[in-house]
Write a structure and sequence with these properties.
475 residues, alpha/beta, Rossmann fold, 2 domains, four-stranded mixed β-sheet, elongated
């Protein structure tokens, strides 16, 4: 039984894909049909079709061409670039009987080669005598765009292979001149034939050093120094993804308003506002709806508005600490509280209202909790990442799996923004917003300092960055 039904070469312009195709076609039992799904031509420029399929037929239904490729006596395939017909991408990636070959090249080399080809109009070379001489002009912004597209597609390929439990055969540009590597590729594809020598009909077009091929080489060197090619400035984030928790959403029964809560606030002002809105009409918001029920509500409320509320990460963490960790009564996380005391050395009082638990003790305990949060959100603890202290960025990402909120409001301007929301649906007299609850037994203002702010930034670096939070200040 054949190992594969067909193959695809994932490549990009100026990565050596023509040379690879030429050598694949030199093997008995292998046939590569060019850029079969290039949106501007079929297979090769000026070609009329592939295996009896015209470009018009392919554009109408790309699967027709894929079926013909799979039918051939040889193991057939094609080259696919990141900007080719996306309709075929999922079909190929989800098919374990499709062999995936990934061809890569140093992105600076591929960019310079592309710029020279643009300048000279020469995209292939079969005779060195016909070579056209030219130099590339490096444009920094253009290269960044080029690099980003390559990296994004490579990450997409890698993730899709990982998620589906597949592997690919990776080939570097330099491997194309290696006979053993090409014969190894044929073996991996399940073909018995081997080559005694590589096809030399295609010539390397620009064999000289980069300094000789780039007209503004010094500018290129300086521009590349400014690129963070190792992504050193990234914010590492190992927090688990959060799905769309639709049953926790609140759908108004009197107005076309949907509230998507970000947990972590013991006294939710936004929910109180929504409750007051419905109470005036003798109803109350519905939650615990299934996804189908929520879609029914959306269909029944055309023009609906959805919203969520962002809160300062430090303020939210302190509210969670007081409500979930310090709290020994209803709503407190007793099991987690006990573990934090034993394993993470949080000095938590048996009775938070006891006078011995003063502001100094509260500050020390909260600082320890912020250190725990950093480890917890980075997947370094055995304790779950609870929705109450999960990062707001991950929660919003989870919303996106079902429905993004139309408005991301800020807690400090919530009254004004809710009034605007009401006005947008023609609501004349929206209810007043309740005053925010006060944290007990001590307020954040009583313990705040630069170290506390720094610990919060370390724990919630992604939230600070993504949502532009400044240092906390009392409102």
């Amino acid at each position: 039984m054949a190992k594969f039904d067909y193959f695809v070469v994932f490549a990009e312009m100026r990565t050596g894909s023509n040379f690879l195709e030429t050598n694949l076609n030199a093997f008995d039992g292998l046939s590569c049909h060019g850029e079969a799904f290039n949106p501007f031509f079929i297979g090769y420029p000026n070609a009329d079709g592939i295996l009896g399929i015209t470009q018009e037929m392919r554009d109408s239904d790309p699967k027709t061409l894929l079926r013909e490729i799979k039918k051939t006596p040889d193991l057939s395939g094609f080259r696919y670039f990141h900007d080719h017909d996306l309709r075929i991408f999922d079909k190929v990636m989800d098919d374990p009987k499709c062999a995936k070959i990934v061809l890569t090249r140093n992105p600076v080399d591929s960019y310079v080669s592309w710029k020279i080809a643009q300048a000279t109009g020469q995209w292939k070379l079969t005779d060195a005598k016909a070579r056209k001489d030219g130099k590339a002009t490096f444009v920094a912004d253009e290269f960044v765009t080029h690099l980003s597209a390559l990296q994004e597609f490579q990450v997409t390929l890698l993730n899709r292979l990982q998620f589906s439990g597949q592997t690919a055969f990776y080939v570097g540009y330099e491997d194309l001149q290696n006979l053993q590597a090409m014969n190894g590729l044929a073996k991996w594809l399940g073909v018995d034939s081997q080559l005694d020598a590589l096809d030399k009909s295609l010539k390397v077009q620009n064999p000289s050093a980069l300094s000789d091929k780039v007209s503004n080489f010094g500018h290129m060197q300086k521009a590349l120094l400014d690129l963070d090619q190792f992504n050193l400035t990234r914010t590492p984030n190992f927090e688990p993804r959060r799905g769309a928790a639709v049953p926790t959403y609140f759908a108004s029964q009197s107005q076309p308003i949907l509230y998507l809560p970000i947990r972590g606030w013991p006294d939710d002002q936004a929910l109180g506002w929504l409750n007051a809105l419905d109470k005036a009409k003798g109803v109350q918001p519905k939650s615990r709806l299934s996804q189908n029920d929520m879609r029914d509500w959306m269909r029944a409320n055309p023009g609906h508005r959805s919203f969520s509320v962002l809160r300062h990460p430090l303020e939210r963490a302190h509210a969670v600490f007081c409500h979930r960790i310090l709290n020994t009564g209803q709503g407190g996380y007793g099991g987690i509280r006990a573990t934090l005391g034993k394993r993470y050395k949080l000095a938590l009082p048996d009775d938070p209202s006891d006078v011995s638990y003063d502001k100094v003790a509260h500050r020390d305990a909260f600082a320890a909790f912020l250190r725990f949060l950093k480890a917890n959100l980075n997947g370094q603890t055995a304790i779950r990442v609870d929705p109450d202290w999960a990062s707001q960025a991950k929660t919003v990402e989870g919303f996106a799996e079902y429905a993004l909120p139309h408005r991301l409001m800020r807690a400090e301007t919530l009254a004004h923004e809710l009034a605007e929301l009401g006005a947008s649906i023609g609501l004349a007299d929206a209810p007043q917003l309740d005053a925010p609850a006060t944290d007990t037994p001590h307020k954040l203002t009583d313990i705040y300092d630069t170290e506390i702010e720094g610990l919060a930034r370390a724990a919630y670096a992604c939230d600070y960055l993504m949502f532009g939070f400044r240092d906390w200040a009392p409102t």
